[in-house]
Amino acid sequence: MSPVKSLAIVVAIAAVVAVATVFVSLPREQNAPGVAQDDTAPANETEDKTIVYTAKFECGTISGDEGPLRPGHYDTDIGILNKQDFDVQFTWTTVVNDGRATHPVVKELAPQTSTGIVCSMLRQLVGDEKFVEGFVIIEVPVSGQLFSGSSAVVGRQGDTVDILDVQVFYTANALEELPHEVLVDKIVFTVESDPSGKLPDEIVGTTLDVTVRSALDEISDPVERVRTVLAEKYKLSAQEAAGLDITVQMVSVGAGTMIDDHALSLSRVPPQTRG
Asked: In 3-state terms, what secondary structure has residue 241?
């Protein structure tokens, strides 16, 4: 073979290799016809997901002893904070125990702002029952781009993104009424005689005192009030109580506060990824 032909063959081969190299190095358009897509990309970077927060709530009054909760007044405050530097839209749905779910409520939070879901709002959706309990489901739809390594999302931990800060504040009070000041009367008295013989001998003829609740604009007989207390304490009949000879030495008025049997608790709701 002549040197000229050999040189021509070498040049042709080099040109074919160069064209093939350029074709391979060209960027492929997404979904381009005839071009295979890269199926090895992480699913959490290409699929849309939803971040879900599930918060338990207790609202209302329990008067009997039929349930695991003791009698009292229960209240729930679900606090929601958008800790991101962009607007976040979410929906929340109420699911009542042994009941149906309500229609979702749409809410949007500006950056670094917060909102709350309280019992009065829940009752508007589920009805004004004496006591109601269940769950509030908060859902934040997010695009797959939010999960990429270049995203600056506060609360990102691996594949889990904690978009919102959701905390639940519970209160319980076992009193029939909220704590408030009450008027009391302190009555100093002596039981001069007890024809029934039911009172202990040591209190007959002894100066004693008793404190009873009072009220404004109330007209009462301190002797009768003492008589009523003694009758209840020592199981006296109406006739036996009427036979007591009672002398009242002094009555003084004071103010007291009802004991507050109050319990508080706070819990943070962790996020769950769905989709």
From this structure: helix
